[in-house]
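User: Hello! My lab partner asked me to get a predicted holo structure for this protein. The small molecule is coenzyme A, SMILES included with the sequence. Please write out the structure tokens.
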Amino acid sequence: MVDNPNLETNWQDPLQPPILANNQVHVWRANLDLPTAEINQLATLLSTDEIARANKFRFPEHKRRFIATRGILRQLLGNYLQISAKILKFEYSDRGKPRLAASISDSSLEFNVSHSQEYALYGFTHHNQIGVDLEYLRDMKDAAKIAERFFSPRESQLIASLNSEQQQRIFFKLWTAKEAYLKAIGTGLTGSLDGVDISLDQAGYPSLLAINGNITAAASWSMHHCIPAINYVASVAIKTNIIKQQMNFWNWDQDLSIAQN
Ligand SMILES: CC(C)(COP(=O)(O)OP(=O)(O)OC[C@H]1O[C@@H](n2cnc3c(N)ncnc32)[C@H](O)[C@@H]1OP(=O)(O)O)[C@@H](O)C(=O)NCCC(=O)NCCS
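Assistant: Hello! Below are the structure tokens for the protein in complex with coenzyme A.
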């Protein structure tokens, strides 16, 4: 059975850029394979270092997707902060996690981005660490082997007990939840995947069970699962006990850019 993105998640088309309340989390999905005119328009929002990065891609498709991912991120941040997307500046942690430069804004806005093939997913919230991971469901014939090596013993036993079609879906569900947490804390994959123990409830919904064996530490995190498109799976990790109803899932559209862009 193919997971249906529109049945699992209520993706909304905002009529205007939405306001992010303090107790909300906004998740945006965007298709990156945009017409050339839109890519060119988004490229005008990028800084010189981002353009230099874009120019290093060997394949034009990868360059276009990088421009789209960054340009859309700038548009969304510009909308939330009510400032020009062009003048936004990023700083990077020692592991490469982007954040808003202090010189640009003293905003409490936190964000994270993930992209895979032709989609990008963005998460925004106030005050709390947030991490997002999106994966394209590719063939994973060795899912059980990888899980045995990198997942917790409990997770790898779960994967081993499934048939190959279920293995792929559950593998990526667990993987994205782990990576979303590791991206929220900023270590990325330099952090330990097997120390992030994910459990799935009866409906297959993931939550953070333990961090390096610590159940109390895990309880201050919330994990959300979504399907941005057919054959994609994603997770969003937030350091908060925020409940599901406070999540909003939005479709990005070029028309959402505000006048100051
Ligand atoms: C972060 C990381 C997990 C991304 O993995 P991925 O599945 O290929 O990529 P995703 O699409 O999920 O995420 C990429 C985005 O996450 C963000 N990001 C980059 N580093 C990050 C980090 N350490 N933590 C959280 N987010 C990060 C960026 O916005 C990046 O987008 P960009 O490539 O357009 O700049 C992986 O690159 C990693 O483990 N990095 C840390 C390792 C390290 O030490 N790198 C040194 C470079 S400074």
